[in-house]
Amino acid sequence: MECSHRFSSQGGIWQGAKLLKGGKYALLGTTVSPGFELADYEFGRRDELVKSYPKFRELIIALTKY
């Protein structure tokens, strides 16, 4: 099976991923440029994301733990 998806985005864009129904594994990665700075990294908090993007509530819940 061959499958390849690539996306580019600007800074400040949230990302998330989940397996397709029946999926058993996935290999995910993120490349950042310029270099990654932990101080600039922000985990998405479910409650804050749902409040900011209520239209995407179900998707946010599916893609977040907290």
Describe it.
The protein has 66 residues and is mainly alpha-helical. It has a domain at 38-66. The chain has two helices and no strands. The radius of gyration is 14 Å and the shape is globular. It starts with 45 loop residues before the first helix and ends with a helix. The model has no long low-confidence stretch (mean pLDDT 85).
Question: What structural keywords apply?
Answer:
globular; 66 residues; mainly alpha; 21% helix
Summarize the helices and strands and which ones pair or pack.
Elements: H1 46-52, H2 57-63
Task: Briefly summarize what is shown.
The chain is an all-alpha fold.
Look at the helices and sheets and give the structural class: mainly alpha
According to DSSP, the number of beta strands is 0
Order of helices and strands: HH
Unreliable residue stretches: none
Mean pLDDT: 85
The dominant shape is globular
Q: Work out the radius of gyration.
A: 14 Å
What share of the residues lie within helices?
10-25%
Strand content: under 5%
- The helix tally amounts to 2
Q: Span between N and C termini? A: 33 Å
Major sheet details: none
